[in-house]
Amino acid sequence: MLKTVTKQVGGTTASLYSVGDYVPLDFLLEQAIVNSDNTAVNILIKNLGYSNARKDITKYTDETVPEDFYSTNITSAGYSYDVINYLYEHQESYQKLIEDMKKSSMGMYLKEYITDYDIAHKYGSYGGYVHDYGIVYGEKTYLVGIFTRNITDSDKVIAQVSLDILNYTLGKLDVNTLVPSGTETLENTTNNTSNETNATTEANNTTENGSSA
To answer: Positive or negative, the Cα torsion across 42, 27, 54, 132?
Structure first.
């Protein structure tokens, strides 16, 4: 049980618990992933300590993270890929987390136009940034991340790019018809995707994290 010692910012947790209440840890973890519940995330971080929490999650990457990473809610495509790849390679140890990720977003973002395959993912939005990244269990399982900034209908853009990538892995789409001339194409389906409306990304391009990402 963790104590709600932080300001509530909406979500299921805030509707069921008040400041000063004790909340089951498994409930907070599930809400943070399934509903991207910022109150649940804030409670977890407040009890762990923000800097300590950020230091703990650097163990999932070999990237050198900037100093701002420990005090600011930022991420990068490369770091996010490393985290998802770690989950993929250690699925037997994270079965509950992956099942929660499959239920995340209520059918939006990466999975909006994909109904035939499971997608374990974590989405988030904050201050004009909207991201989603995860594991797609298609005919060929692959990892994908799509990061946007200040674009109209970003959730629909993410959904369409996600569908295009799936169709590419199924041999139904030539990705070169989608990417602007001069842009590096997506040759490996485990590459991340980003850069507003493009399906490629600079792995070390630091961006704002989405909510409870």
So the answer is: negative
d(CA 108, CA 213): 16
Q: How many folded domains does the chain comprise?
A: 1
The string of pLDDT tens digits covering residues 66-119 is: 999 998 888 889 999 999 999 999 999 999 999 999 999 888 999 999 999 999
- The mean pLDDT of 12-22, rounded to a whole number, is 89
Flag whether 21 is in a domain.
no
Q: Which amino acid is at 140?
A: K
Residue-range definition of the domain harbouring residue 198: 75-208
Q: What is the pTM of this model?
A: 0.79
Phi-psi region of 79 (alpha: psi -120 to 50; beta: other; left: phi over 0): alpha
Q: Of 88, 83, 76, 94, which Cα lies nearest the Cα of 61?
A: 83
Residue 158: phi, psi to the nearest 5? -60, -45
56-68 per-position pLDDT tens digit: 999 999 999 999 9
Nearest to 173 by CA among 158, 189, 184, 157: 189
Q: Residue 106 and residue 109: Cα distance in Å, rounded?
A: 9
Cβ neighbors of 86 (< 8 A, separation 6 or more) are 60
- Does residue 183 sit within a domain? yes
Would residue 99 count as lying in a domain?
yes
Tokens, residue 70: 């420990």
Query: 110 in a domain, yes or no?
Result: yes
Q: State how far the alpha carbon of 107 is from the alpha carbons of 58, 103, 178, in Å.
A: 29, 8, 24
User: Tokens 């490369």 correspond to what residue?
Assistant: 78
